[in-house]
Amino acid sequence: MCSMYGQRQRKNSREERNMVSMTRQSRGEGGGGPLLRYRLAAEPGYPAGQPILIRFTLENMADGDLWVLTWYTPLEGLMGRIFTVTCDGREILYEGMMVKRGDPGSKDYMHISPHGSVSAVVDLSEAYPLHACRECRVRFRGRIHDVVRAKGTLPRKSDDHEGMDIEGNSVIFRIGEG
Hints:
- This protein has a single domain, classed as Immunoglobulin-like, CATH 2.60.40.2970.
- It is mostly beta strands.
- The strands form 4 sheets. A 5-stranded mixed sheet has the order 2-14-9-5-6, with no helix packed on it. The chain has a 4-stranded mixed sheet with strand order 8-3-1-13.
- Strand 5 (83-87) and strand 6 form a beta hairpin.
- Helix content is 7%, strand content 35%.
C-alpha cells in the first residue's frame, strides 16, 4: 500500500494487534478514537554517506488542546533509541547520544491544537551507521511519555506522567552507493 508520501507501508499481524491495543489505551473523552497518531515520511532513496532525513509528524486527533512531552520523540531530535531501523533484514543499532533525565520543565512540552499537528525532521545518519542497502525500514517506537490536556498542570513530575502508545506508519527507502 502507498502513503500520501509515496512510501510503501507494511503491517504485520503483531503491528495490527498493537494498533487495536494502542487505540484502546489512547481513546479520548468520547471514546471515539485515538488522541494522537504519528506519520513518518522519507524520500524513496538516498545516496550512501549523505544525510538521511526523516520527517516525523504528530497529529492531535482530539477535539481539545494537548501538550505532549517531547522526550524520546523526534520532536527533540535524536536523543535515544526511538526508532527501530532495519536494513536488508538486519537491525541497525542506535549509536547516538543517550540522555539521563530528571523531571521535565514546561519547555519540554509541545502544544498541539485540536486536530492540528507538529513536525520535526531528523537525520538518521547522525545516530545510525547506515550503509548501502536495497531496503531500509524505519519505525518510531510509538511511545509518548506524557500527554496533558490542561496547560495549567504543566510541568508534571516523572512519577505523575500519563504516557501512551500511539500508532503510525513505517517508511521504507533505499540507500545507494555514493
